[in-house]
Design brief:
Layout: E1 5-9, H1 14-30, E2 33-40, H2 49-76, E3 82-87, H3 90-101, E4 105-108, H4 115-121, H5 124-131, E5 135-138
Parallel strand pairs: 1-2, 1-4, 2-3, 4-5
């Protein structure tokens, strides 16, 4: 299948970087547009608007360098990568973005969390596979790593 728009969930971690590089190669083969998105989680129970604004400013500063790195990795491989900072729960934000922008593939790396936390909360990749309306690729690097 030839993909037209690929979305990569990118948080700067080693598994996310491996997934991003795989998506760059896949986009090049398909001639697809590629977007890397980081997701900022804001406080669930913010006391004031200033608290929310402060958290958003912190998230912008934190993810700016991460998203710049995604762009650099793309340039190193001759690919243009659009970047987006989304807000919310990661799986929900990625699914919403993919639907709104007509993405036909979401690529993510596996998440390194404890077995108990994964059991209680579920993983982003599992939620994407279950609920996304487009195809989802959970890329596991041949080198292995956290699962």
């Amino acid at each position: 299948m030839a993909y037209r728009k690929i979305l990569v969930g990118y948080d700067g971690s080693a598994p996310a970087t491996a997934a991003l590089l795989h998506a760059v190669d896949l986009a090049a083969r398909c001639g697809a547009e590629l977007t890397a998105a980081a997701v900022a989680r804001l406080p669930e129970y913010a006391g004031t608007v200033d608290e929310v604004n402060g958290a958003m400013d912190d998230a912008r500063r934190h993810f700016q360098a991460i998203l710049e790195r995604a762009s650099e990795l793309g340039k190193e491989r001759g690919a243009a990568i659009k970047t987006e900072l989304l807000v919310g729960q990661p799986a929900d934000a990625l699914i919403r973005f993919a639907q709104q922008h007509g993405c036909d593939l979401i690529v993510v790396g596996p998440r390194g969390m404890s077995a108990l936390r994964r059991f209680l909360l579920g993983s982003v990749s599992a939620a994407l596979v279950r609920y996304a309306s487009c195809s989802v690729l959970v890329y596991r690097s041949p080198e292995g790593g956290p699962d």
